[in-house]
Each structure stands twice: as C-alpha cells, then as structure tokens.
Amino acid sequence: MVKPIFFKLSKILILLTGLFLTAQGMAALTASVDRTHLAEYETLELTLRTDSDTSAAPDLSPLENDFDILGTRQSRQVRIINGKNESWRDWIITLSPKKSGRLLIPSLQLEGMTSKAIRLEVSNTPTEQKVGSGGIGPVFIRTEVSNETPYVQEEVILTLKIYYRVQLYDDRRLSPVNIDGAIVQQLGETRNYETVLDGTRYGVFELNFSIHPQKPGPMDIPGLTFSATMPDRRDSFGSIFSMGGKPVAARSAEITLNVQPQPDSFKGPVWLPARKLTLTDGWSAPLDKVKVGDAITRTIVVEAEGLTGVQLPAITMPRLDGINAYPDKSATDDKATDSGVIGSRIEAIALIPTRPGKIELPPVHYQWFDTKTQTEKVATIPAKTITVLPSENGEVLTTTPEIPSQATEKNEETVCPPVVANLTSQGPGWLWPSLSALFGLLWLITLLALWRCRSSRKPAIESSATTEPKGFNEKEAWQKFANACNADDLIQIRRCFIEWVQALSGNSGLSTMDRCLKKLNSAPLESSFNQLEASLYSGQKQKLDTKELIMLCTQLRKEQKSSEPDNGLNSLYPG
Q1: Is the pLDDT of residue 162 over 70?
Q2: Residues with Cβ within 8 Å of residue 108, at least 6 apart in sequence
Q3: What is the CATH number of domain 27-123?
C-alpha cells in the first residue's frame, strides 16, 4: 500500500513542478529598439516587454553609463483571440547616447527575468547639418561661439538655438551648462520666435550664455540635451495608460575652445580683457566754489564690455597735501545685453579741503586690453583742479591720514573672480548730481540705510504672498481670437485660440492645442486646426476657412456657457 501511494505522490509532484517551470518559462523580459544606427545627437526608443503580471518596474540604472534617460512611458495591453486572453506590459524608454562609437544596451532585469543586450552604432555626425527631408528629426540644435581662441578671462558668447517643427508640451527642459574651469551665466531670458528653413516653418528657442575661461589651454563645452514631449496621435490608450505623448530630444555638438594665456606684452597691474572700457567721474558740487571744511563727493565709474563688475579692480588714490579723502564702500553691477555682459564698478570718495588755494588732483589711469584690436590701452580721467575758498571764520583744518589700503587688497581678489554676477539686478543710475549726492550721504548714514533696508523687506514679502491671482477675461480673449481670424493670421489664430479656451474653461493648464481640442471635443473644430497646423509646420499651404472656424467656436462658446454650473466661481472668471 505504501509504494502505490508514494508513486502517486511522486507523479503529482513532478506534474506540479512541470507546470511551475512551464509558467516560469512563459514569463520573459524582451528588449527591442526602433533603430540600431543613429547619430550622437539623435535619440532612440528602447521597449521592454513582459507578459508577467507584475507591478514592479525594471532596473534602468545600467543604462546611465552610456545614455541619458530622457523619459519613460508605460502601457498595458490586453488582446482576446478565439476566447484566449493575452496580455503584456511595455516600458518605452527614450535614450540619448552620451558618446559616439559602438555602444551596448546592457541586459536589464525585472523580478528574476533578464533581457538580452543590444548593440548600437552611434556616428559622430554633427548636428549642424543641412535642414531637409532626410535624416533630421523634428527637433535639432545649432550652437555657435563668438570666439574659439579667446584669452583667459575674456568673455565668450555661446548661442544655442533649438529648432522644432512639432507641437511640444510644457515639460521642455535643457540640461545644465557646466563647464570645467569657466564662469558661466545666462544672458537675459530665453527668446521664442519662428523662422523658415528650406521652406519649412520652425519654432526656435534661443538662449545666450556668457562664458569666462579661468585658465589657459583647451576647454570643452559639452553637448547640451534638450528634451520635451510631443503629441503621439497613434497612442489611442495614451489618456488611460500613459502621458499621451512621445518623448523627443536633441543634443548639441561639443565645442572645444583653445584658451590663450595673458600676452607677455601686457604691462598693466591686473589683466583686463574687454571689448570696450570707459572711465568717467562726476562731482557733487562745482570745483571752483568749495570752502575749507566743506565736503565734496567725487564719483568714479568704470564700465567694461565683456567683464563682470567683480573683475574690475579698485582705483587707488594717492595722498594729497591740503585735502583729506574718505573713500566709501565701492559697488559693482552687471547688465546683460544681446552682445554680452557689461560690468561696472562705482567708487565714491568724500574730499574735505584743509586749506584755501588751488589743489591739483592727478589724472586717474586704468590699464586694460582691447580684445577687438589686440592692443593694450589706458583709460584716463584728466587731472582736475579744485579752487578752495577760505572758510567763513578763516580756519585751517588739520590734515589727517586717509585712503585705507583696502584698494590693493581688492585688486588681488578680482584677478580671478570666484562668483557669478546677478544678471537680474538693475543698472546704476547715471545722473551725476543724484549719484554723487547719494554716495555723499551713504558714507555718513550707512548703518541707518542698512537698518531701513532690512526693516522694509519683510512687509514687501508678506504683501506679495497675499496677492490674489488674476482671473481670466474671456470676453477680451474671445475678441483677440476673432480679430486674428478676421486678419487671417495663422500664428495669432493658434495662440489666441489657446488663450481663449483657457479663459473659457478657467483652466490655465490647457496650454497646448491638443488639450484645448480635447476639452471642446469637436471633430469639425479639430479638422480645421489640423489644416492650420499643416499650413504652419509642414509647409503645405492650405486655405483655412476662418468664417467657418468663427461659427464653430461661437456655437461651442454658447454650449460651454449654458452648461456652466452656478458654483460661485464665475466672479473669478468674468465674461
């Protein structure tokens, strides 16, 4: 009796083991790519698929050695054929190669399952190729620098232009600009405009960066990666299982600068490479009406194109017989322009004559290097004469030591500036009487000014925090849209339509055409805007019936307004 039972149990155990192994064999993790040959600036899509019913995610960290992971989407699909259910889960990963050559997408793992490795060929084709119908994606980048052989500490302008011919969602991002051995700062805000290349209309994001190399020798500007999401009309399950878009990216080409050392011929105390440098001064009172014991403020301003304010050294003043000098704390400032940074340094000195007569002030010299003409130059303020009148009681003041030694220390600090200037600050006022009077007061009431500044900041922050958001004006947005239609301006029609839908729905998140059309849910309206998009971005000139568009939107406007519930929110969205 024992043996038959043992044999039956053995058969059952073998059968269960076989079923378990079969089930395990069916569950697998497969990897595939949309292409195996691409250029360094292009992207590819890696698809990981499993038929295992799992909620875990694959480990993507092995990809980070050779690729930038720009985005990951996930979808799950179920198919029923002849009563048999089939289901699988996909992870679609958008990758951008970090280098050219033969790269390997390594094996990836998910709950004990392992995918096969995939070999890629990545060419080093530059991104600055001719725009045309073949070989270039919907997004590409062009970069250029103002000078490939700058001197050390000379400003180089990096211009980055991102071209796109598809609609992009608001998740646009650019990798940080990190350059070893250089000070980098963005010049102004990102510009957005449109252009036409080879008959195709492109949108453009343009960014400018100021780069100051801090040491001679080769300096690499790494490639920058731009990524965003474009609508994917083929993804019918996008609104349920994914973000409803397709990641798209582009990478700029690397640029190498050959940074030159300071030329031996330069004899100045501090190396100052600039495109232009000016030296000016102003006075708080006429120089021929000063009395003994009166304070007069001299303000000296150094302004340099291509240098930051902290790079400009302090001005040293010699000790003079018959006059006491009391320097105020200097101020620096930076101003961003299309052509680069303009740095300025402001020195204010209070002068008090101690005897009547004429007092000669020596000229002020400032040595710098003109990067345009490749020559050393000297900016000069000519010598000045102060005519000092006797005081009313005829007294003569005692001369006291002045001119502290901090100027020399500042010269040493500014040879290699360690900070990045703030480009959002306002430039200094250049009205000499006001500026001179200001510095004349500052050296007397510095502590009081600091106290008042600190005490005034807190209320300003509190008041800004309690500001109510401004509502949408639907009537105004509708009028702008109607005017654009009457003018047959396709670009304005597209822009004003989005603004109007935002105002109509009271939802600022409807910032793309796809989201607006989905909100209104009108097939004729979508057809009209498909014609508009084709005319704008594909180069296909199609006549848009703006009258029909206005009629469609008018009807939708009535329907939306009539269906609005009275929930107390109408006061925020007038119209």
Answers
A1: yes
A2: 29, 31, 48, 58, 59, 60, 62, 63, 114, 115
A3: 2.60.40
